[in-house]
Amino acid sequence: MTPAGPDPVPCVLRPVGQPEWCALLQAARRSPLPWRNRTILLLIWQGPVRPDVLLRLQVWDVQLAGRLLRPAQARPVRLSEEAAVALVAYLALERSTRCAALFSGRGGRPLSPPELAQVFRRLSAVAGLQVSPWSLHLGALCARRAADHP
Question: How confident is the model at residue 150 (pLDDT cuts 50, 70, 90)?
Answer without folding.
Answer: low
